[in-house]
Amino acid sequence: MEVQKEAQRIMTLSVWKMYHSRMQRGGLRLHRSLQLSLVMRSARELYLSAKVEALEPEVSLPPACPSDPRLHPPREVESTVETATADGEQPSPEPMDTQEAPTAEEIPAYSAPRPAKVSRKRRSSSLRDGGDAGLVPSKKARLEEKEEEEGLSSEVADRLQPPPAQAEGAFPNLARVLQRRFSGLLNCSPAAPPTAPPACEAKPACRPADSMLNVLVRTVVAF
Amino acid sequence: MFPKFSLRSMFHGAGGGNDIQWCFSQVKGAVDDDVAEADIISTVEFNHSGELLATGDKGGRVVIFQQEQENKIQSHSRGEYNVYSTFQSHEPEFDYLKSLEIEEKINKIRWLPQKNAAQFLLSTNDKTIKLWKISERDKRPEGYNLKEEDGRYRDPTTVTTLRVPVFRPMDLMVEASPRRIFANAHTYHINSISINSDYETYLSADDLRINLWHLEITDRSFNIVDIKPANMEELTEVITAAEFHPNSCNTFVYSSSKGTIRLCDMRASALCDRHSKLFEEPEDPSNRSFFSEIISSISDVKFSHSGRYMMTRDYLSVKIWDLNMENRPVETYQVHEYLRSKLCSLYENDCIFDKFECCWNGSDSVVMTGSYNNFFRMFDRNTKRDITLEASRENNKPRTVLKPRKVCASGKRKKDEISVDSLDFNKKILHTAWHPKENIIAVATTNNLYIFQDKVN
User: Fold this and answer.
1) Residue A173 burial (CB < 10 Å; 0-12/13-18/19+)?
2) Poorest-confidence range of A75-84, B238-247, B396-405?
3) Strand order across the beta sheet in which B300-303 lies
4) How confident is the model at residue B76 (pLDDT cuts 50, 70, 90)?
């Protein structure tokens, strides 16, 4: 649980850093973005493997997903991550849409019935998402994060860099905003910030996309 | 009989050949605690003779200090460095196509060897490299035949004699003028420039590409390394630093974010995507952690003056590589191993992304690099001793010998030791430089430049 919490915290932090780095003068730094996505991927792997250990065996993961990702070389892991997320990426922000979650889901983090609830939710979600279990943990992560945000918001706020308040408040919508922006920007010129002129998003026939953003999109979407 | 080593070395564990004792010499910069962002020093470099010391800052400014000629009578210290020239090298720009601001921060300065009375240096920001000429003017022509002293032309009818202007001394004026501007060759952010030993060409490296330029030609450059994958989603590593070999004009190295160094020979092919040598140390599995990948990223690579070795700096260590041995470094020095257990916090406060530089002394016997809390470290390759010193205004009496510092990693803190948790991570020394011939070092804290020398008796 601790491991899961920590991994989740790192993921949250990484997304925030990625978002923040776009606002910096000089634009997106490729090296920094790569490092953040590496950490986020490691955190995600850790989170998933901790989850696998914690949950019952009925929850199945795709065979490509390594049981102990930390022992596998990065390239291998990356390709499995890409496969998992490639299927999951949808044009609509539905996977990241936390508003669909019924309020019944907002139960305390450590109560006993939770694992059962989790597996039910996961299976139904996987049916909805076309059987891609790779995304379902992420969806769970979003819900968990929302609950934990409410429960642990002060703790997170203390540890995050300022402005923590606005970062937290933004999180339920952050991924959706990022995804919408990223999708538009993927067909646009490289490294354009969210404030790129609308003409860019409307006309996909700009310069070939600098798909560094793809890396970020997939990482964010996976999360 | 008395032991051979001096008492000094017993207590100080001096890092330096012949037990150097480092003394404070000068500090440049504002005393204010409130640091203006534009004044943050971003690069420090001695010229080839060591007479000039250049710094670049985040505001795009270059300040050059010149060493006073040694006063033979006062032989207790070497000449002081005083401001010689200050100029605005780069201005903030805006890339309208990408809607991106281009920072004016000077990433690197490299001096050209002196060929005539003027000095030349290359300075670069994220996108543009400039060649600057710094020249002195200490005479001016006076006594023009046709012009008044203020430049106005005299009425021709009043000119009755011929007068030839003569040069008369004037107050020294140092002028910096941009002679070449090398622009529009980098899509990503430039991290390195390096002048070739042929003194005609130089390379510039960004995250994915390295370009070769001729100093005289600004509208063309040759791409010699390109690691951009066809599909950017497959990107796994970026170029972090590059340097030409000091003697072989066909050889250069570049380091990566994965902790590898590639040596390339430009004679092999036009595009040096296939390395001649790959230097990589297998990861120690016991050190593997969540942040292993990112702390193995190399932040700086420097050839030794001899050209036989190269030094790399990653987040926690300095490694010396023999160019003839690719599978592991010949020496590894831990800079601040006590931070290994703090990587998570360092990730939170972004310190884990700090890019430390490193440098060699003139004889390649000692290497130096920076750390946090305004500490910097020196490692003597011969004696295997190391020393930690602090750049602080508290020790700012000239010729005050610096006291070695020690960080207490865990357990009981001894007197005069600092515990890891007390370290100030906002005070970092990223840039240091060593005089090419003498034991004079320049150490940049956030906005101050410290100059230390060895004690001269």
Assistant:
1) middle
2) A75-84
3) B300-303, B309-313, B317-322, B331-334
4) low
Residue for token pair 């907002």: A106
B296: domain CATH number is 2.130.10.10
Name which of B99, B233, B288 is nearest A192 (Cβ-Cβ).
B99
Q: CA of A129 to nearest chain B CA: how many angstroms apart?
A: 23
Which of B102, B208, B297 lies closest to A35 in CB terms? B297
* Closest chain B C-alpha to A189 CA, distance in angstroms: 7
Chain B contact set for A197 (CB, 8 A): 99
Whether chain A has a CB inside 8 Å of the CB on B240: the answer is yes
Determine the average pLDDT of the residues in A26-46: 92
pTM exceeds 0.80 for this model: no
Residues of chain A positioned with their CB less than 8 A from the CB of B291: 39, 42
What is the number of structural domains in chain B? Answer: 1
Q: Is B12 domain-assigned?
A: no
- How would DSSP label each residue in B237-257? --EEEEEE-SS-TTEEEEEET
Cα B194 to Cα B175: distance, rounded to the nearest angstrom:
24
Q: What is the Cα–Cα distance from B349 to B347, expressed in whole angstroms?
A: 6
Query: Residue B95's domain spans which residues?
Result: 20-452
Angle at A220 between CA A218 and CA A223, to 5 degrees: 105
> What is the spatial distance between Cα A25 and Cα A61, in angstroms, rounded to a whole number?
41
Asked if the C-beta of B187 comes within 8 angstroms of chain A's C-beta atoms, the answer is yes
pLDDT surpassing 80 at residue B17: no
CA distance B325 to A80: 34
B101 contact residues in A (CB cutoff 8 A): 25-27
Residues of chain B neighbouring A218 (CB-CB closer than 8 A): 233
Q: How far apart are CA A206 and CA A185, in angstroms?
A: 10
Of B236, B294, B227, nearest to A36 (Cα)? B294
Chain B residue with the nearest C-alpha to that of A12: B348
How far apart, in whole angstroms, are the C-alpha atoms of residue B209 and residue B186? Answer: 8
Residue B184 vs residues A158, A174, B101, B126, B189: alpha-carbon distances, Å: 43, 34, 15, 11, 11
Within a 10 A sphere around the Cβ of B103, how many other Cβ atoms? 22
Give the whole-angstrom CA distance, residue B298 versus residue B256.
6
Q: Which residues of B12-39 are buried (b: 16+ CB within 10 A; e: fewer)?
A: bbbbbbebbbbbbbbbbbeeeeeeeeeb
Question: Average pLDDT of chain B?
Answer: 92
Domains of chain A, by residue range, sit at: 1-54
Query: Hey, are the CB atoms on A31 and B240 less than 8 Å from each other?
Result: yes
In this complex, do A30 and B208 lie within 8 Å of one another by their Cβ atoms? Answer: yes
Examine residue B143 and state whether it is found in any structural domain, yes or no: yes
Question: Which residues of chain A neighbour B290 with C-beta distances below 8 Å?
Answer: 10, 39, 42-43, 46, 70
Give the model's pLDDT for residue A26.
Answer: 85
Predicted confidence (pLDDT) at residue A219 exceeds the cutoff of 60:
no
The residues in B 72-111 lying below 8 A from A, measured between CB atoms, are: 97-103, 105
Report d(CA B290, CA A205) in Å as an integer: 40
